[in-house]
Amino acid sequence: MSPSSKKDEMGAKEQHEVEHATGDNSESNSDTDAVDPRLENMPFIEAFGHHYHISGKIFLPFDEPERKRLEVQHKLYRHCLDGALTNTRLPLDIAQIVDLGTGTGVWAIEMAARYPQAQITGIDVYPIQRRKGVPPNVKFEIDDVENPWKFPDNSIDFVHARSIAGGVRDWPALLRQVHQKLKPGGLFEMTEIALNILDFDGKFAEADLCPEFLQIFRDLCDKVGMDFNPSPHVPEWLLDANFEKIVQRSEILPAGSWAQDEKMKTRQSLMNQITTEHYVLDNHCGLLFKSCGWTKEQFDAIVPTFWQEVQAANIRPYITAVFTTARKPRKEESA
User: Fold this and answer.
1) Sequence-distant contacts of 256-259: CB under 8 A, at least 24 apart
2) What is the mean pLDDT of residues 306-334?
3) Is residue 151 classed exposed, middle or buried when 0-12, 13-18 and 19+ CB atoms within 10 A define those classes?
């Protein structure tokens, strides 16, 4: 067997193991190469080789590499939830579900199979949703999630939001709208990646890797008024919006090649697919850095140090996914 054939066989085996561990099957077969006609004629801002919303207010791209990254990320989140689609325990008779920042729509489509009686609406600023295999109980709306929603107050059973940091400027206002639209007793769940890179062998969850790069990133976020790391503040914002039963759960996402047990190896394999230089830095930093006056050459000059730190032989890097759940009180307090 040739080296290339052996490599292909190993890659196929690894992919099979990932799909088995995430509960992934035909549910997750995507058609991300199918392009919505609206996308072909959609005006955009180009930054560091990626396409962003023409408004300049959405710091997440919408090109093909990003669509493929979102599909892998979906598998990664499912693995964190032991194959489930939510961290929230939902009633079987749930009727109205809204998915904020639906992306390719994969979560909404798979939820529709689990809850065929529910009407599921996915909202995203980009028309990048799958075009094949969309169940009749799923619909997609192209809109900014921070705009007023069309749903009546007290009409939604479950609101789901995932990886929308970079597209939300006023988190407290968004969470107030979630509360307003949920029925009494309605449920909310959001998932975000924490903006920290940590060493598993270091001071657990205390010392950042790549502190210089991350500080530059945070400073630029402050400059443009964009919070890419909302999770630490979300419990307080939810309390202010009158939610209850607020719980956060963090899951380790290892990168590199240090994971030992099968569970972490599967996550690591998925992480390594989307933590390349192209995915991690260029696409999520492009518009942010360009908006703050950085050139691609200036950006490229600081990238090697970032990767040297992350890929050092004595480092076991990981990030965390933070799942936050909450409930609107069953009965509103009387005035």
Assistant:
1) 256/310, 256/311, 256/315, 256/316, 256/317, 258/200, 258/316
2) 87
3) middle
Binned at pLDDT 50, 70 and 90, residue 1 comes out as very low
- Within 13 Å, how many C-alpha atoms sit on residue 64's CB side? 6
Number of CB atoms found within 10 A of residue 129's CB? 26
Interval 212-241: pLDDT, tens: 999 999 999 999 999 999 999 999 999 999
Does the pLDDT at position 15 exceed 60?
Answer: no
Q: Is the pLDDT of residue 122 over 90?
A: yes
Q: How many other CB atoms are found less than 10 A from the CB of residue 8?
A: 12
Q: What is the DSSP letter of 278?
A: I
Are 56 and 292 contacting, i.e. CB atoms less than 8 angstroms apart?
A: no
Pairing of strands 317-327, 244-254: antiparallel
Distances (CA, A) of 279 to 49, 70, 301, 316: 12, 10, 17, 20
HEC states along 80-95? HCCCCCCCCCCCCCCC
C-alpha 94 chain-centroid distance:
24
Q: How many helices (H) and strands (E) does the chain have?
A: 11, 10
Q: Residue 273, by phi and psi: left (phi above 0), alpha (psi -120 to 50) or beta? A: alpha
Q: What is the pLDDT at residue 40?
A: 82
For 204, the token pair is 């657990």
Count of CB atoms within 10 A of residue 221's CB?
19
Alpha helices in 241-282 (DSSP H): 262-274, 277
Instruction: Determine the pLDDT at residue 239.
Output: 98
